[in-house]
Amino acid sequence: MPNLTDTSQNIYRVRVVVPVHLYDSFDYKLSLDQYQQAQVGARVAVSFGRQNVVGIIVEKLPLDAPINPNFQLKNITELLDDQAILDDNVLSLLTWSAQYYQFPIGEVAQTALPTLLRQGKPYNLLARIWRVLDLHADDKIKRSIKQQDAYKILKLHPTGTSENILNLSGIETATLKALEKKEIIRFELEPQNFKPEPVQLAQMPLTANEDQKKAIQGILKAQKKYQAFLLDGLTGSGKTEVYLQVMQEVLKQGKQVLVLVPEIGLTPQTISRFQSRFHCNIALLHSGLNDSKRLQAWQHAQTGKASIVLGTRSAIYTPMPNLGLIILDEEHDLSFKQQEGFRYHARDVALYRAHLENCPIILGSATPSIDSYHLVEQNKLTKLELNQRAGTALMPKMHLIDLKIAKKDHGLSQQLIEEIKKRLHKKEQVLIFLNRRGYAPVLICESCGWQANCPNCDAHFTVHLKPYQHLHCHHCGTIQRIPDACPSCQQENTFKPIGMGTAKVEESLNELFPDYDVLRVDRDSTSRVGSWQKIYDKIQKAEPTILLGTQMLAKGHHFPYVTLVAILDIDSGLLSVDFRATERTAQLIIQVAGRAGRGEHKGDVYLQTLKPDHPLLNTLINNDYRAFAKQTLKDRQLALLPPCRYAILIRAESKSQDENLSFLQQMNENLREVSGDLIDIWGPIPAPMERKAGRYQSHVVLLSLDRAKMHYYIRTWWQNLLHAKPSNMKITIDIDPQELN
Ligand code: ADP
Ligand code: ZN
Ligand code: ZN
Fold first, then answer.
1. Across 564-587, average pLDDT
2. N- to C-terminal Cα separation, the chain
3. Per the omega criterion (within 30 degrees of 0), is the bond before 191 cis?
4. Secondary structure E strands in 80-234
5. For residues 370 and 236, is the Cβ–Cβ distance under 8 A?
6. Residue 448 marked ligand-binding
7. Which residue of 2, 61, 454, 737 is most buried, as measured by CB atoms within 10 A?
8. φ and ψ at 130, to 5 degrees?
9. Residue 261: nearest ligand to its CA?
């Protein structure tokens, strides 16, 4: 134990991670007073280079710790928190993530903090409590109903009401501010109550069927210890009911539950399923929140006030003092993998977190990833199956339509048009799926064959007609107007859009079915806040409607009146070079198909294709994703592809492909020298889309059966590579890559 009172020679230091793209953490000096106050997991303001940054203390160094002579020891500027805001488990999770994904710890740690805390804003445990000042102010607010409502409520609570509660009951902060300005009300900062509220069951659980019972009991046996489950249940088999009943037990013990859902899965419908079952504080963490709402939700999670935390990918790093269960729904969804910057997979991080927290974790899906089936084979995941649709609903029937021989109208086969008509006449709903937004994927000149291509990418421009006619590159964002004449043959009026996007199909459907509403759901049509909600509300009414959209529609939604699903074109997914393309395509087909027949009427799925003999389609036509997955895992085993070997993808990007390739070639040789044949090195090769946003992309794929050893070799090699690379070359590392583009 160092003698803390002897200050003569002692230099008190803390180790801090700072938000810069460097792999180290840094030591700073502080006074004895500060040292005694400093907490691991608390924020500090420090200067780094010429910047002032907000860092996190990860260690209080003992006095005899060696001093790095190469780094000038600076004083910290300020302690920002008087207590830890990240707990030990989250700090360990961050350290592990930085190591595993080979990413700078300071940047990794940013993922765990809401924006306002990253900016160094105070994290106070105080709340604004509003009270009425002027009891006779009715005349001053005659013109604003909102202000009258707020005033009425505040008058009913003379002891004051917190702004949070007012916000929750629909009173906006702006309204309160307006009343404050008129000196009718005012607020004071008071300590908040972060005690967990007792959880009440707001709604009786459904009577679980046999499969559900088995799953629930299986998971509950594992309470208070780490065990990972794969809940493999058909679409509509009642996975959510299993989650809810397991949660009920965990919540009863005063524990918190973390639920992770895909990026666009966090719809009002999802939220309300949890809200209507449990009466408790639910913290929502997703990208749609403004900074202060996000901080508030985070605070509820971090203090233990929230019993349920419902969030997307990055919510896996939320501190929760009493975490007792993690649920990751739609575990196959690609949005759990961050595809840029810190490239982590929330599913893998979640497994590690559950391990650290010593609690069970459930990964759920109707179309589990091949990765997860592999973990089941290795006994790292316990599989629980739900084999029938819950309630009375039946699985939909799949039909293939051979586009080579079908009669077509507006790009839809005649047979499909007839079937759609039948459903609409019966006042049922129809869902049309096409995973391509815009009007058309290609624009050609019919006279000379010229095609409109993006000048910066190896890609066609997509034609958009709204809000104005233009060409848009979906890879780099370049926008151009459609030229008046063909740039190649100079003729006018020779352009023809080829192929169809959702906007074109919308136009066709309006022509084919003029008496019915067509609701389009894609990123273009739902970019405005609330527009998706409006569409959603319409679908929940039993009115004949055509719903048209991209994969936004495929995600776990419950559309009780949809009885027909049409999949217009998934052929590109059958032909792609990425070995995971068939897995993604199969998941997409089963998930879209799963939106059919979830109510009283049986559903049908029609799939248009030019490849009706493709083995994937023939397996899936029997709704048999599991048979497909089993075969795929076998194929991967034979080909020694992930998950049967561990992969790392190195991407290089610069203005010269030659430079990329020769640099990577050299680095590969260095690696081969140290790792021998432990690592199989593929490449360097040009990326599937060689030129993107004006720069050339190339890849190296590293594969090994021995993950630990590969990661060991890679660590030093990667650091060398970063030092050796030309400054105009951007190089990234992707551990366990999900996409090879
Ligand atoms: P999944 O998440 O597996 O796709 P859901 O949880 O959405 O399935 O369940 C589909 C429908 O079945 C929902 O309307 C749900 O309320 C209902 N359901 C689930 N379990 C039962 C049950 N045990 N008895 C009756 N209905 C159920
Ligand atoms: Zn482009
Ligand atoms: Zn031309």
1. 87
2. 54
3. no
4. 126-132, 161-162, 185-191, 200-201, 227-233
5. no
6. yes
7. 454
8. -95, 140
9. 1
> What ligand 1 atom has the least distance to the C-alpha of 212?
23
Residue 653: give its domain's CATH number.
Answer: 3.30.70.600
359 is in an annotated binding site: no
Asked if residue 236 has its Cβ within 6 Å of ligand 1, the reply is yes
Residue 33 lies in a domain: yes
Q: What does the pLDDT look like over 149-200, one tens digit per residue?
A: 999 999 998 888 888 788 878 888 889 999 999 999 999 877 777 777 788 8
Same domain membership, residue 109 and residue 173: no
| Residue 626 pLDDT greater than 50, yes or no | yes
Q: Is residue 600 in some structural domain? A: yes
Q: Say if pTM beats, i.e. exceeds, 0.85.
A: yes
What is the span of the domain harbouring residue 17? 12-115
Sort residue 49 into left (φ over 0), alpha (ψ -120 to 50) or beta. Answer: left
Q: What ranges in 594-699 are assigned the alpha helix state H?
A: 615-620, 625-639, 657-675
For 253, the 3-state DSSP assignment is: coil
The answer on 48 and 100 residing in a single domain is yes
Q: For residues 29 and 46, give the distance between their C-alpha atoms in angstroms, rounded to a whole number.
A: 10
Q: Do 381 and 254 share a structural domain?
A: yes
Cα(246) to centroid(ligand 2), Å? 47
Instruction: Tell how far CA 564 is from the center of its chain.
Output: 28
Rg of the chain over Cα atoms, rounded to whole angstroms, equals: 29
Q: Are strands 278-279 and 200-201 parallel, antiparallel or unpaired?
A: antiparallel
Domain presence at residue 149: yes
How far, in Å, CA of 618 to CA of 266, rounded?
Answer: 33
Which residues are CB-contacts of 418 (< 8 A; sequence separation ≥ 6)? Answer: none
Location of structure tokens 């084979």 = 377
